[in-house]
Amino acid sequence: MTYNDASYKDKKVISIGTVSELTGLTERQIRYYESRQLIFPERTKTGLRKYSFQDVETLIEIANHLEEGVWTSEIRKELKKREQQLNNSNIRTNLIKGQINAHFKI
């Protein structure tokens, strides 16, 4: 069985309490970052927030930026820009894979 880095990092399985312990942020801070649309946890059927390892890394990055005096609106712009770049990169990768598959008739 092969494990893909992205697959486990993107699974939303971590509770807000554990995220708080891992990041050193309070649950209130984490919910605030969500309200500012910097982080997007999933909700269980009962309404509990679930985060991914990637969310934990993002929260640490957000906290570091805020300590440096960066405003949440600027952080949001940077996160959206990074997400768009990642999406564009994934699209290019899939196009190249498709061209290779077509060329070799896979």
Automatic annotation (TrEMBL):
Family annotation (PROSITE patterns): HTH_MERR_1 (PS00552), HTH_MERR_2 (PS50937)
InterPro entries xrefs: DNA-bd_dom_put_sf, MerR-type_HTH_dom, MerR_fam
Molecular functions per Gene Ontology: DNA binding; DNA-binding transcription factor activity
Pfam family, one: MerR_1
Key words, A-Z: DNA-binding, Repressor, Transcription, Transcription regulation
SUPFAM superfamilies in alphabetical order: Putative DNA-binding domain
Domain annotation HTH merR-type: ranges: 13-81
Keyword field contains Membrane: no
Name recorded for this polypeptide: MerR family transcriptional regulator
Source organism (scientific name): Ureibacillus massiliensis 4400831 = CIP 108448 = CCUG 49529
